DNA sequence: GCAGACATAAACAACC
DNA sequence: GGGTTGTTTATGTCTG
């Protein structure tokens, strides 16, 4: 129920911008959805709910406050159905930001560990939001109950990147997704299959032996079954870019090179938000994505995981290879700029060259610096340079799609 | 209309 | 034996 959840229940003008797919990055599929099976969602909630996932802490991050704010937004800020103002679109953006991007702060894992008291979605935060909404409209209007606008690849990417150890067992990936997207708690368990499917097929993710993983990871509260999954450092910038583009298809349209990169003393993004109050703007999301990029790019340079982890493809000073040839990259990727194909037959997959094979474009640290600069530019936008919000040209197509239903 | 991207389902094997 | 994990295949939908 991607579009049905995010758009079909809303006026077309309320459809979140991320549903207007950036070039090369397909949006959520409308047709087959976890809730397409009538009657099944409810029963699935218990099976995959947080209660059955005691290891959630390892992938958790503070969300309580943002969820509370989301609750307020759901009650008052979302506007009424039928209104088609730009502000309402921004309200949807608020959801994205406050639920996810805020976690991608400069603090990274430290931030997560630094606030153990706040257990995301534990408890009442989610239920209070639902209860704050009126009756049966809650599920429809509560974005927490709608399918997230991210592909599974990006969800997995975010989950892994949010983990202190930059690697997670599949169970913790489930937990992270459940915590941040309660939609899946009521969705059929097929989404877990999709997660595993992505992990297996997407070359952006790599399986790490648990014994090796522990070498660079914090102790995990798992039963030892399965492997750890991490993001291939080679594809981390690509995934970050995919995430950015998913948020801002028109990012480059308003990009202005920054005069200087943001200082290390810059306040975390959530602090900036606090200073600016609750009126979020689309530039905030750009900045949040910038945080993601900053974090991602910085880890390309100094991530201890890269230094001693089992995946050691991008050590300091070395080049990072990113394939740009779809013929060479028969992988399961969500990264748009190099259109990486996926879901290839196993035979083709076996024939596909490894991450270091094929036609490559060398992405040096200078390129990473460019991304850093771009992220810094986004921070400038956050500081007050408001970008022009272009109306995505897919709107017409979306309207067509909605009307087709 | 086609190719690519993505989601979903299902089968199967291995492991705990 | 049951549940989980991981892999593979197939199929449907949407978008460019």
TrEMBL record:
It comes from the Eukaryota. Residues 9-18 have a biased composition (Polar residues). Residues 147-234 form the Fork-head domain. It holds the Pfam family Forkhead. One of its GO terms (molecular function) is DNA-binding transcription factor activity. PROSITE patterns: FORK_HEAD_1 (PS00657), FORK_HEAD_2 (PS00658), FORK_HEAD_3 (PS50039). PANTHER family: FORKHEAD BOX PROTEIN N2, FORKHEAD BOX PROTEIN N3-LIKE PROTEIN-RELATED. GO terms for cellular component: nucleus. Signal peptide: none annotated. Keywords: DNA-binding, Nucleus, Transcription, Transcription regulation. InterPro entries: Fork_head_dom (IPR001766), FOXN2/3-like (IPR047119), TF_fork_head_CS_1 (IPR018122), TF_fork_head_CS_2 (IPR030456), WH-like_DNA-bd_sf (IPR036388), WH_DNA-bd_sf (IPR036390). Residues 1-87, 106-145, 324-362, 386-405 are annotated as: Disordered. Residues 147-234 bind DNA. Residues 121-134 have a biased composition (Low complexity). This is Forkhead box protein N2b isoform X1. It is found in: Nucleus. Residues 394-405 have a biased composition (Basic residues). Its main location: nucleus.
């Amino acid at each position: 129920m991607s579009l049905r959840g995010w758009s079909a229940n809303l006026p077309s003008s309320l459809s979140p911008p991320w549903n207007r797919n950036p070039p090369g990055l397909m949006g959520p599929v409308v047709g087959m959805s976890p809730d397409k099976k009538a009657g099944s969602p409810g029963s699935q909630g218990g099976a995959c709910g947080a209660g059955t996932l005691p290891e959630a802490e390892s992938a958790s991050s503070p969300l309580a406050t943002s969820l509370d704010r989301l609750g307020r937004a759901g009650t008052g800020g979302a506007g009424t159905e039928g209104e088609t103002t730009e502000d309402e679109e921004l309200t949807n953006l608020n959801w994205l930001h406050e639920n996810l991007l805020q976690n991608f702060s400069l603090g990274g894992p430290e931030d997560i560990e630094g606030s153990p008291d706040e257990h995301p979605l534990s408890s009442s935060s989610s239920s209070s939001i639902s209860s704050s909404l009126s009756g049966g409209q809650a599920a429809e209007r509560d974005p927490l109950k709608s399918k997230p606008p991210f592909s599974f690849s990006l969800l997995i990417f975010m989950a892994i990147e949010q983990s202190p150890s930059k690697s997670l067992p599949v169970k913790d990936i489930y937990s992270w997704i459940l915590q941040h997207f309660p939609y899946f708690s009521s969705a059929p368990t097929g989404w877990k299959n999709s997660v595993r499917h992505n992990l297996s097929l997407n070359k952006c993710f790599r399986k790490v032996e648990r014994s090796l993983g522990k070498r660079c990871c914090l102790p995990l509260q798992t039963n030892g079954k399965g492997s750890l999954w991490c993001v291939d450092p080679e594809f981390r910038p690509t995934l970050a870019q995919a995430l950015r583009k998913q948020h801002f298809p028109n990012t480059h349209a308003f990009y202005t090179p920054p005069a200087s990169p943001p200082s290390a003393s810059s306040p975390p993004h959530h602090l900036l938000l606090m200073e600016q109050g609750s009126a979020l703007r689309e530039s905030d999301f750009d900045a949040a994505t910038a945080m993601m990029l900053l974090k991602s790019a910085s880890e390309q340079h100094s991530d201890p995981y890269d230094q001693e982890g089992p995946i050691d493809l991008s050590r300091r000073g070395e080049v990072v290879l990113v394939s740009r040839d779809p013929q060479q990259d028969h992988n399961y990727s969500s990264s748009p700029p190099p259109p990486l194909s996926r879901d290839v037959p196993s035979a083709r997959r076996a024939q596909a060259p490894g991450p270091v094979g094929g036609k490559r474009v060398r992405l040096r640290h200078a390129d990473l610096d460019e991304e850093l600069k771009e992220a810094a530019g986004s921070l400038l936008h956050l500081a007050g340079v408001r970008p022009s919000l272009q109306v995505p040209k897919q709107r017409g197509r979306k309207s067509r799609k909605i009307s087709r239903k």
